[in-house]
């Protein structure tokens, strides 16, 4: 059938009146035949198996039984009447119960005739009963071609209340197949169908709605999932290509004096291969005439700062300014310090702008930015203020991307005609699966190698009852000259309790680690910024050996001499947060440790989190587990991206299909960017149809 015909409004389908059409639209977003066709079942009931009454289990589940009704009676109750049938087979008897529709059922049921019944068998008052069973004469059941795998469609309470139950949806679907004669054009090219050995679109649609067998159902699911992911990938990749063609970027064609001088004379260490590769990828972007839009992922401590600096030097070599934004003042300050140290011998003007920058200094910064004297501006959100105007911003680097919104980012260059190159750095690895779907239109660089000589952090799980041993261990480490973090959870909802835990903990630590032998810093969100800085400073300088803190230290703090991270109530932290916290240690040459303290009460999820943390240091592996535990909905950025609107594929479970889909989308666009080859005609046509009917745009903001 002509694909346009599938755009017929749902009102036209036989069996759908104006009321049902309205409900289908408002409840399930079904406007057209096509939409109904793409309403895929959530699950299937297996009706290939027949139970005997004698086999029924007391757990209530859906079963199918062959037997006869031998008796029918009305039972009067306070709450109303019910119709009860006695149903028997050769192993026993049970009751079928109806609370409504009595007249019709009494008139239509044939006594002592074999039926197939289907429904939930409940154990009630010493016998099994099944309310409102589906019933079909055995003779008709045998003759019917209906699938043994019964689809269960997504529904809503309102639909059910208005009588549009699963059976009705099923009927409508059958009607749709009748009206369209189930002739559906294929939406994938012959090449793909052949290479992947896929069933046709028509066969897939038949089998997703009326599976003929488990095997065909599996094939139908694979094909439809692939198709869904393929067209999303196609669009993301094409968006990326378009950006490269259309969004002009500053061309940094000079690898000039600063970069070269730094590289040859001032590199404090040899770059890792991963760092070299990433710098190369960035340099390619910067010289391509198109705007760079790159995500740089690298675990904590993988050395992103030097990459950021070298990218900024490239900008300056080409007579542009660069800025580096961090989510917190502490982090901005640290970036500023490390970059100042690195460029110490170079003629580079670097300044720091945060909320606490003094007015006089601020004025100087504003001036130097405008007249071009300032090369690098490092700062917090303060950089985004309207008063901050650049002479020629050519590069914006954003650290810890998830804390800045897209809109905020855009603010940086809304006044520019040509946008600056953008490099987003994150230490929270986004699982590859998710990154592909979310950021398929960004380029991604990954530093997947730690600088040499790092000893992997040893992570253990200890119960609160072992606290004395843990304290002894801390004393030993401090005796060796090391420093220790002790972190308490602080969660908004239970802030008061958490705060009390923190203070109690602090007091008990003070008792166990008495002055003057031990000095303790404490930092938490309720302190004034100046006090926080003071305490932090003491720890950084090594004047205190123990830092008691809430998660404010999560991001960025760099104290290489700190080698022990104790996380209290670790079961209350999420995986990525645990991993971030652990990243605070292991920054020096010494062996570092992370100790996860918990009570004995642990949920299965907490156990998985703790087990994952003790097993691996790999941020990507951790991110994958996190995604599996929490689902994509809770991971940053997914809410807006619409990956949750997938109709059939599951971004976590269908990882392999996603990879295949991406591979094919890339392959095809590489070979035929405008999809103009004859072999890709079907794809171009389908893609255009999707765009026209806005199917695909639902996925992407
Ligand atoms: P992050 O990726 O977490 O921002 P940093 O850039 O802060 O990591 O680097 C962590 C530490 O590793 C810093 O002390 C830095 O000087 C050091 N470092 C970075 N790259 C290398 C390298 N190639 N060899 C040795 N040390 C390195
Ligand atoms: Mg960093």
Tell me what you see in this structure.
By secondary structure, the protein is an alpha/beta fold. Among the domains are: 48-146, Nucleic acid-binding proteins (OB fold (Dihydrolipoamide Acetyltransferase, E2P), Beta Barrel), CATH 2.40.50.140; 257-286 and 303-426, 3-Layer(aba) Sandwich (Rossmann fold); 458-616, 3-Layer(aba) Sandwich (Rossmann fold). The chain contains 25 helices and 21 strands. The strands form four sheets. A seven-stranded parallel sheet has the order 11-12-10-13-14-9-15, with helices on both faces. Helix 8 (201-209) packs across helix 9, helix 10 (257-266) runs antiparallel to helix 12 and helix 21 runs antiparallel to helix 22 (619-630). It is globular, with a radius of gyration of 32 Å. It starts with 17 loop residues before the first helix and ends in a 9-residue tail after the last helix. Residues 637-642 and 696-701 have low confidence and may be disordered. Bound molecules: adenosine-5'-diphosphate and magnesium ion.
Briefly summarize what is shown.
Belongs to the helicase family. RecG subfamily. It is built from 25 helices and 21 strands.
Helix content: 40-55%
How many distinct beta strands? 21
Q: How does the overall form come out from the CA principal axes?
A: globular
The ligands bound in this entry are:
adenosine-5'-diphosphate, magnesium ion
Question: Which runs of at least 5 residues are low in confidence (pLDDT < 50)?
Answer: 637-642, 696-701
Q: What average pLDDT do the residues reach?
A: 87
Q: Number of helical segments? A: 25
The CATH superfamily of the domain at 458-616 turns out to be P-loop containing nucleotide triphosphate hydrolases
Strand order of the largest sheet: 11-12-10-13-14-9-15
Beta-strand share of residues:
15-25%
CATH architectural type of the domain at 458-616: 3-Layer(aba) Sandwich
């Amino acid at each position: 059938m002509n694909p346009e015909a599938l755009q017929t409004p749902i009102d036209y389908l036989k069996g759908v009146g104006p009321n049902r059409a309205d409900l289908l639209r408002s409840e399930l977003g079904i406007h057209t035949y096509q939409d109904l066709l793409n309403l895929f079942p959530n699950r299937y009931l297996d009706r290939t198996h027949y139970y005997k009454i004698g086999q029924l289990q007391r757990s209530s589940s859906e079963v199918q039984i062959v037997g006869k009704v031998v008796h029918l009676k009305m039972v009067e109750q306070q709450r109303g009447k019910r119709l009860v049938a006695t149903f028997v087979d050769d192993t026993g008897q049970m009751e079928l119960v109806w609370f409504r529709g009595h007249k019709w059922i009494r008139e239509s049921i044939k006594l002592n005739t074999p039926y197939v019944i289907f429904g939930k068998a409940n154990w009630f008052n010493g016998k099994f009963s099944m309310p409102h069973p589906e019933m079909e004469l055995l003779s008709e059941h045998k003759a019917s071609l209906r699938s043994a795998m019964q689809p269960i469609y997504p529904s809503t309470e309102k639909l059910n209340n208005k009588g549009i139950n699963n059976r009705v949806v099923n009927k409508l679907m059958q009607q749709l197949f009748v009206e369209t004669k189930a002739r559906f054009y294929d939406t994938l090219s012959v090449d793909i169908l052949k290479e992947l050995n896929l069933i046709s679109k028509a066969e897939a649609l038949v089998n997703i709605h009326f599976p003929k067998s488990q095997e065909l159902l599996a094939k139908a699911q694979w094909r439809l999932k692939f198709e869904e992911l393929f067209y999303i990938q196609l669009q993301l990749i094409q968006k990326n290509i378009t950006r490269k063609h259309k969004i002009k970027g500053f061309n940094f064609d000079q690898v000039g004096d600063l970069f070269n001088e730094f590289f040859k004379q001032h590199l404090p260490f040899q770059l890792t291969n991963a760092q070299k590769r990433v710098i190369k990828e960035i340099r390619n972007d910067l010289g391509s005439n198109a705007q760079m839009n790159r995500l740089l992922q690298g675990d904590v401590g993988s050395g992103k700062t030097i990459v950021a600096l070298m990218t900024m030097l490239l900008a300056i070599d080409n007579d542009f300014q660069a800025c580096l934004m961090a989510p917190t003042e502490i982090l901005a300050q640290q970036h500023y310090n490390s970059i100042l140290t690195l460029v110490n011998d170079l003629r580079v003007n670097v300044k720091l702008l945060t909320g606490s920058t003094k007015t006089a200094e601020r004025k100087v910064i504003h001036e130097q930015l405008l007249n071009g004297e300032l090369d690098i501006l490092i700062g917090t959100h303060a950089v985004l203020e309207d008063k901050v105007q650049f002479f020629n911003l050519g590069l914006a680097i954003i650290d810890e991307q998830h804390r800045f919104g897209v809109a905020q980012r855009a603010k940086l260059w809304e006044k520019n005609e040509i946008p600056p190159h953008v490099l987003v750095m994150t230490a929270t690895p986004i699982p590859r699966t998710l990154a592909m779907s979310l950021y398929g239109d960004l380029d991604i660089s990954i530093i997947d190698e730690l600088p040499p000589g790092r000893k992997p952090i040893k992570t253990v799980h200890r119960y609160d009852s072992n606290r004395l041993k843990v304290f002894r261990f801390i004393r030993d480490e401090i005796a060796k000259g090391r420093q220790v973090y002790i972190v308490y959870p602080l969660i908004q909802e239970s802030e008061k309790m958490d705060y009390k835990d923190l203070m109690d903990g602090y007091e008990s630590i003070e008792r166990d680690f008495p002055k003057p032998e031990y000095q303790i810093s404490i930092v938490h969100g309720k302190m004034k910024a100046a006090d926080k800085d003071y305490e932090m400073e003491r720890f950084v300088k090594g004047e205190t050996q123990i830092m008691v803190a809430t998660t404010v230290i999560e991001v960025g703090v760099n104290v290489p001499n700190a080698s022990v991270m104790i996380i209290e109530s670790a079961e209350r932290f999420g995986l990525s947060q645990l991993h971030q916290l652990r990243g605070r240690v292991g920054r020096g040459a010494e062996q570092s440790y992370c100790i996860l303290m918990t009570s004995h009460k642990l949920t299965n999820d907490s156990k998985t989190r703790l087990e994952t943390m003790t097993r691996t240091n790999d941020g990507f592996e951790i991110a994958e587990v996190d995604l599996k535990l929490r689902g994509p909905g809770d991971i940053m950025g997914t809410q807006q991206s619409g990956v949750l609107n997938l109709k059939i594929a599951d971004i976590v479970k269908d990882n392999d299909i996603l990879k295949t889909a991406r591979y094919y989308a890339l392959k095809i666009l590489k070979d035929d960017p405008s999809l103009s080859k004859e072999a890709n005609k079907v794809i171009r046509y389908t893609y255009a149809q999707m765009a026209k009917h806005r199917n695909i745009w639902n996925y992407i903001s």
